[in-house]
Amino acid sequence: MAKATTPKVPVKYLVIHCTDTPEGRHITSDDIRRWHLKERGWKQVGYTDMIHLDGRVERLVENNDDAYVDGWEITNGALGHNSHSRHIVYVGGRARNNRTPADTRTPAQVEALTRIIKKFNELAPNAKIIGHRDLNKAKACPSFDVKAFVKEIGIKQ
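^ thats the sequence. predicted structure below, dont judge the formating
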């Protein structure tokens, strides 16, 4: 894949998302691609990485894992914030009844998210780690308080 020559932009945010799917429901990268590319008509999916129920982290969009967002790395996670943000999604975020938002992270997802956040914080210590709802108050996503979680795992922002 040829990489665009747009300038690098320092990462301002690591934005945590949920798939907004019922607790325990398995989601694939094909599901994400269908929802974002086919159904919404986006040019790119919304997330760089997806954390599966078992804690496995799947790369959805190529990324060089540095403290900058290159033009070819931009995902569509949060309108107005994509050119300076990296977006991560965990599978879940809704109660089993599919009616209400809920923190459905499995222990394996919490462990994977902790690793991702700590690595990101080392890479881009000046960037903020936030939830999608911190950028869009109309959303419950990611269905837990990211700022409290970040503090709980020992990262000061």
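The chain has one domain: 9-152.
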